[in-house]
Amino acid sequence: MMNLKEYMLICMAEECDEVGQRCMKALRFSTTEIEPGHVMTNAERIIGELHDLIAVATLLAREGILPDEIMPSEATIQAKAARIEKFMAISRDQGIIA
């Protein structure tokens, strides 16, 4: 039998998967495409999935399972941007991206 922590972490993992799935759809069909039977673009649906992920992370923080620092600081964002640029340079050197 699962406890609350295990259950909520599974919920978070599922939300991570849903963000990834929506990103793949946007790569395949564009960020502006609206899937038949839906009203939001792929970009809007990515944001919706990110909101769901942040909501679960917030609930985990409220339960004391995760720290309260859900949203990254500007310094954390800049550090991540630098790491992305570093690895993009390697991909450019390998001819993977333009």
Q: Key terms for this structure?
A:
single chain, 98 residues, mainly alpha, 2 domains, 3 helices, 68% helix, 0% strand
Write the SSE topology.
Blueprint: H1 4-29, H2 42-62, H3 74-93
Helix pairs in contact: 1-2
Protein model, in words:
There is one protein chain. The model has no long low-confidence stretch (mean pLDDT 97). Helix 1 packs antiparallel against helix 2. The protein is mostly helical and 98 residues long. It has 2 domains: 64 residues; 27 residues. 68% of the residues lie in helices and 0% in strands. The longest helix has 26 residues. The protein has 3 helices and no strands. The protein starts with a helix and ends in a 5-residue tail after the last helix.
The pLDDT mean sits at: 97
Bulk shape = globular
Strand content: under 5%
Distance between the termini: 50 Å
* Count of all domains: 2
The number of distinct β-strands equals 0
The number of helices is 3
Radius of gyration: 17 Å
- Secondary-structure element order, N to C: HHH
Q: What structural class is derived from the secondary structure elements?
A: mainly alpha
